[in-house]
Structure formats: C-alpha cells, structure tokens
Amino acid sequence: MPTGREERGRDLRGPALGAAAWWGALLVLLVPPVPAAVLTVVATAAGGWLALRRPLLRVTVAAWALVALATAGSALLHTEQSAAGPVPGLAQRLAAVDAQLVVTSDPVPLVQRFGGGVRFDATLLVVRQGRGGARLHAPVLVVADESWTRVELGSRVVASGRLRSAADPAKSAVFLPRGSPGHVSGPGPVWRAAAALRGGVREAVAGRGAPQRDLVPALVDGDDAGLPQQVQAEFATAGLTHLTAVSGTNLTLVVGFLLLVGRAVGVRGRWQVVLAVAGIVGFVLVARTEPSVVRAAAMGSVALLGFGSGGRDRGPRALGLAVLVLLLVQPWLAVQAGFALSVLATAGILLIAPSWTRALARWLPEWLAAALAVPAAAQLACTPVVAAISGQVSLVAVLANLLAEPFVAPATVAGLLGGLLELVWHPLGAALGWVAAGCGAAIIAIARTTSGLATPALDWGAGPVALTLLTLLCIVGGLLTGPLLARRGPTLVFSAGLVVVMLVPPPTPGWPPDGWVMAMCDVGQGDGLVLDAGPGTAVVVDAGPDPTLIDHCLDRLGVRRVPLVVLTHFHADHVDGLAGVYAGRQVGSVAVTSLGEPPERVAMVQRLAAGRARVPAYGTRWRIGAVQLQVVGPVPGVVQHGTAADEGSGPNNASVVMLAEIGGVRILLAGDVEPEAQRVLERTLPGLRVDVLKVPHHGSRYQETDWLTSLGARLALISVGADNDYGHPAPDLVAALATAGMDVRRTDRDGDVLVVARPGGGIAVSTHH
C-alpha cells in the first residue's frame, strides 16, 4: 500500500522556478527588446497584484518574478556582449585580419556541397588589421579546410583569414582562416590527460569489428565521429540517439558506477559526495566542456539525486535549480532543442515515472515495472519536441530502449575501464574492450531490428496546430495513463494493439498501382529513383539527401530487396540517403561513378557498401527481374569538366547515365549531366528516342535543351525540393519541355510520382503526397 508520503501531492515549486527562469530567457531571445521589456513589467505587476490578494502566494510569486528577471537580464547581457567590441563590425565588412585564438571544441568534419573541411568553436584573443590591433575575448565559429583537422582542444593558434557575421547570436563572428594554422602553444596537462583517455577508449576496441567499435566511444564520452551514417539513421528511427550523444544517461552510468566502487572500498557519507563531484568534473573534461556536455552533466546529476534517498522531493527541486543556474550561465540554452529534450526527459523520469512504476508494480515485478515506466515517461515528455524536430512520433522508442537497457551500462562501464587500462597494459584494456564492443553489437542489432519494423513512427507534422494538439494529447495521456497501467487487462490490450501497428504495414489502398515500372520518390532537393524488378524487389538509382525520406518511399512501395543500387555521382543530394536504402532490406551490389569527388562522400558510400562499391564499365548491361539497364555515360576519354557557372560540374558530368527498359517503357536516367556531357551523349546516341526522361540536374537552367526536347519523351520527371535556393527547375526549361509535348511532373508539387505501363501500350502517371 502507498504510504501517506506517497499519497500527498508532489512539490512542484522547484520545476515552476525553472519554468519561470526559462520564460525570462525566452522573452529576451525570441521577442524584440521593447515588447520583451513591456511583457516582463506586465508579468511582474500581475504577479505582485496576485500576491497582494493572496498573501500566502506573495513569497512564491516574488521568487518567480525575480528569477524571470534574472535570466532575462543574463540573456540581455550575453546578447550585448556578443554584439560589443570590434569583431562584429569587422565581420560586417568581411574584413581580412590576423588572429590569435584558443580552441574550445574538437574539430568536426564539415560536409559542404562540393567539398569538406572542419568547424569548431574558439575564443578570439587578439585581432589585428593593418597596424591596428585589439585584445579581446570573443566567441567565434571557425570554418577551415582539412589542414585544421588535427588542431587540439585547448591549444592556441594564429592564422590569417576573414571574419563574417554569424547567424548564431551566441557567436561574435565566423572566422574563415586561409591556409594551415600557426602553432603558439599546445593544450594544458588536464586536456592532454582527457585526450589520452579518449584515445585509450578508441584503442581498447580498435581490434573489434565495425560498427560496434565505433559505438563504444560514443557511449562513453560522445565521440561519434566514426559512427557510420546508417547506424546513426537507425538509432534516430529507434529513439536511441541519446545513447550516442553526451547525455545525462552517460553521466549517470559513469558516476553511478564510480559511487558503487567507492562504497565497495569503504567510501561513506560526505566523501561519497566528494567522489560524485570528482566523477562529474572528470566526465565533463573527458566529454569536453561544451554547453551540451555541461547541460548533460547537470541533468545527470539531477537524475542521480532523484534515484537517491529522498529523491522524490530533492529531484524536482534540483531540476528547477539546475535549469535556473544553466540559464543564468548560458541563456542561449533556452532556445536549443537539446536542452529542452534533456529537461523534459529528466522531468518525465522524476515526475511521471514513479506513479507509473507503482501502477505497473501492482501486477508486474517492481524491477520490470521500473524498466518499462522510466523510458516510457521520458519519451512521453519529449514527444512534442521530437515531433517539432522530425515531424514524427516514434512508436518503437520505448521498446528499443527497454531492449537496449541491459547492454548500455556494461558497454559504457567496460568501455571506460578499457580506456583507462589501455593506458597501462594493452591486453587488459583490449579484453574489456571486447566486452564493451559485444554489448555495442547487441545495441546496434536492436536499433536495426526495431527501426526496420513496418511502422516504427507515425508522420505527424511540425506545424503549430499539429504540435499544439500533440502537446494536449501528451498532457492528457500523462494524466490518464497511470490509472490505466494499474489494470492488467486494458494495458495488455493497448500494448498488443501497439505491437500490431508496429508490425503490420498501414494500408495504402491503390498504392503502388498495378503495372508501375518506375517511381520518382519525393526526397527533397535530390534524386531518388526506384525501378520495379518484381514483387518486393527493385533497383534504386540514387538515394537522395535524407535516409528517412528514401526509406519511407521504399516502404510505401513494398520494397524489401534491392539487388542493385546505382549512385550516379557522389554529391550529397544523391548519396546521403543511402543508409535509408539499407534500413531493414537486403542490398546487393553498389555501382558508382569513376570520379571520386568529394572524397568524404566516397568514404561514406564504401563504408555502407562494406568496400564493395564498384565502377561499371561503359556499355555494361544488367538484367534484374523485369528491369534491363545499359550504361551509356560517361563516355570514355571525355574530359569531365564543365563551365565555370557551377563548381560541381566535374562530378555532375561524370554522372552514370543509363538507359532502362521495363515492361516496354524506355527511360533515360540522366543523373546530373550538364551541357558539355549532354552534347557528348547526343553524338554517341544519335536518334535516341525514349518514353520517359529523367531531367538532368533537377531542372537546372544549364541544359542542352534542343537535345532534350528531341528525345520524343511523353513524360519528363524533375526531382526537386520545394523552395530550394538554386532556382530549380528553370521556368524556361519547363516551358520548353511542355511545348515539346511532354507531361512535366515534379516532386516539389506532385510528391512521389509513379510511371505506370498500360496493358495496351502507353504510359500513365500516378502521384502520392
């Protein structure tokens, strides 16, 4: 039976204090200064009036008003500091400067449209322009070339470059250095020790197979640089992304293990607090002192308090205090989705999970009740924010977290110990690394399986009406779920229904229609084409820029086997979605272009294809089920370059061009070839006639229009993103194709477009939004 202490209401003054702090920061950061000041005064006056009418509320309301004013003042001060000094003015003029700066984050690969580089945070210490100079302390974002990849956190460097204005209001400017960095001084001993431990974790699992060896560093300290994109996409769909980012879960596991070891060796009382503080500080140093890490450390500390003795009351109070302190120190967190997710997940665990655990414990073992209630409560609290980011509501997140939970702690703790012991004796470190990698392999298998279910998530939308409705549903669900969970019958019926929804694909009457031969998937600004090779089988030509979009399109088409994937060239809008093709499907060979640019995309494709991506010879033919394909470009011996109008014309002209025939329908798949390559195709394929033209390069204005209109196609397909920045498709081109008698279909207006072969000959078109 619940005690009187459990039956009394929860003390929500702490969370209310945190909400007031959040409100104050949001007022300044999202509302123009004058209206924000007016709203603050009105809110304070209203609070004072209420306090006078109800004396018992006087102290509480006064505290809320003071807290809101404090965080609003902090946000205002930080905003002024970012705009103060000479740096913003220099950035507006795109000034060339000589600079000295200290690196404050690890370099992260920066994938640009046609090349790579790195980005990292830094503090600008000295700026010189001509004979003038200034000493300052200005936060900047550095965007540099690959020569900056090995710059170490905590080191001081000098460089020449340009400043430009930053979109992030927390930064004074963006610094674009020219050439390699000049070394001034390396990181201090603390940063070197932290880097050594991070390196030890990687070395401990280096002998294990991919991708589990790449997951362990992400679990221990958030180092996910080597994690394949496919695994990241599967973790996102399964609701397990928090495991690979620095989160409160990481800190709770690491510090919790440290406290258990301390208790085993006799550490008691206040020394346990000292040990916990030391563990938190060490975790922050190893995972890096970035805002996201500090946020995770704060939320993890709150969770530890909540799980401890008296956690029912101390946890919520600590949550409110943590939000207040974080927003006073770094008010920009108030507008970051990661901060909202951390706070809401912790709130769900502290405020909702206990009652759900008690309800389930009436007919389940208490350990199982807690294992189910904790991830479910955290997921419910975060659902509106997740939907605002992704437009989806996850159905498999609770199941995936429940299945992964037994493996997360061993993988994290063994990975950390393996990293420590690796610095002493490699065999011992490698042994623990083997344990960590084995648990990591299990987590990856769970993510892959759950993300591959028929309906892992529901498309919801991210508009204001949809999010408001979802928030109301989550609030009502939080209030009504507790009594429901206490009753075995309704809970089991609801759970069975949810399992059926996840396992059985939702009906899509009439889609795909009988006789479809080709689909142009709506993948945004990119290409994602599917050729029907038989029941559940297809050839995929390009995968678009987003794994989720191509995955959903293939699901709608019922494709489970992909014997061949052709990537016409390595630009992001054609290959970044490749992980979505692999999600839950059998994938055979991968054919690619011979021009390996940009190299980071080549490496990503080879990782996903397990090194088996191959370049087909000119004239290669495939017959896969009902699909016949022939490679007709690029033509050997033709220099792959183009006009200066587009810096990507070299890779574009190197696109794999194919002729396809399916059910008597002839299709030209032209990749992104531009006028020069199109003229070569015109010479090598004289008199070519097709039924369907996949218009090159998303309908760019750079076309050999006379040749395209001479192909006699009845249908022209343009794969293009809505409101794109490139002006695609060009109105003149669309008009020319229509004048030539082609039915022009485009994904930005029509959604998925299917080409259907009519039984008596001819083609039809079917669309699906």
Notable features of this structure?
22 strands, globular, Metallo-beta-lactamase, Chain A, 769 residues, OB fold (Dihydrolipoamide Acetyltransferase, E2P)
Which band does the percent of strand residues land in?
15-25%
CATH superfamily of the domain at 516-640 and 648-768: Ribonuclease Z/Hydroxyacylglutathione hydrolase-like
Radius of gyration: 29 Å
Number of strands: 22
Helix content: 40-55%
What characterizes the major β-sheet? Answer: 7 strands, mixed
From the spread of the alpha carbons, the general shape counts as globular
What's the CATH class of the domain at 516-640 and 648-768, please? Alpha Beta
Q: CATH topology of the domain at 516-640 and 648-768, which one?
A: Metallo-beta-lactamase, Chain A
Q: Given the helix and strand composition, which structural class is it?
A: alpha+beta
Calculate the terminal CA-CA distance, rounded to whole Å.
Answer: 53 Å
Count helical runs: 28
Question: Average pLDDT across residues?
Answer: 84
Record the strand order, biggest sheet.
Answer: 13-12-11-10-9-21-22
Please tell me the CATH architecture of the domain at 516-640 and 648-768 by its name.
4-Layer Sandwich
Which spans have pLDDT < 50 for at least 5 consecutive residues? 1-8, 641-647
